Amino acid sequence: MALSARNSTVIPLNGLSTFTGEYENVTKYGVLMISMTTDKAGLLYIDHSPDGVHNDISEEITINSDIDYTYSEYHKLRSRFVRIRFENTTVDTQTYLRLQTRYNVGIYNDSISTTMEDSAGNPIYSTDGALNVSLFGTDGEKNRQLLTSTNGALQIDVLTMPSISVSVDSVDIRNMNYASDSFAVYGKNGDTQHQLLTDGNGILSVNVESMPDINIRNLSNTNDGIAIYGTDGVTQHQILTA
């Protein structure tokens, strides 16, 4: 709790005299507590002001006592500035007076109350609208913005994504009519990616690395030549057909 020197006093008042404190900016607090001990009746005022000049709301508390009286209560702060006044309504001078005002984030009616300011310094009394909430980034120093839309939807950019893996026992690639794009597979070295391509009809383009033996004894329908290596294993020779 923060003690307010401007709105506290221990100086007894003469009859029909008034103690008037000073307006203080209490935006960062939520409640105030007034503790008072006196031996004369009077009126206690809590003045609430939006600008420290105009008094919009005054709470009046009657102190009915001509004997030792102790008053201690929490009060909700209702504006940006607050001031305390106490009037001795009797004609007699007080023997003693102890008026203490304290501010706190505090608890009022079993709930925590506080007041926030927007960027222009105006108090925020309702969070029904969208708010920009500042929070620390991953470096623990710089503030980042946590943004919401007018509907309260959060805008979130994920810093990292978990890896996703899919395991299958077998894949049937016979029907790839809808595979209009290509996908990468690893080559036999396990490192370099190669493309497994399909055309618009889903037909695979396959280049076979090795072929089984071919029986070329019947070449009556071969209109072209077949190139084979000669005995030296380097120079290609032609086997021609008519």
TrEMBL record:
Name of the featured protein: Tail protein
